[in-house]
Amino acid sequence: MANHKSAKKRIRTTARRRIVNQMSESKIKTSIKKVLSTTDKAEAEKLYKEAIAILDRSSVKGKIPKNNASRKKAALTRHLNSLSNVAS
């Protein structure tokens, strides 16, 4: 257990940041799963836009690396394009 005042504050700060990071990571994963589980093209396009916005925001804020966000966006785009091929 910490004895110094600054160490105790660091423990509190770390606990708060951990919760915020878990929430943002959960939001990313949930938005991706929603898009990938959708088979309706119109619904998928709406969810796709939301997921891309979340990924871009997370990338800019430094929650995830830029290339990681690009890779996830590419996977979502491939899924969306496969839906349009099935509908045609």
Please tell me the overall pLDDT: 94
Instruction: Give the SSE string.
Output: HHH
Low-confidence stretches: none
Structural class: mainly alpha
Structure, briefly:
With 88 residues, the protein is an all-alpha fold.
Fold topology:
Elements: H1 5-37, H2 41-61, H3 66-87
Helix pairs in contact: 1-2, 2-3
Describe the structure.
Helix content is 86%, strand content 0%. The chain has one domain: Ribosomal protein S20 (Methane Monooxygenase Hydroxylase, Chain G, domain 1, Up-down Bundle). The chain has helices at residues 5-37, 41-61, 66-87. α2 (41-61) packs antiparallel against α3. The chain is mainly α and 88 residues long.
Keywords:
0% strand; 3 helices; 88 residues; single chain; Methane Monooxygenase Hydroxylase, Chain G, domain 1; mainly alpha; elongated
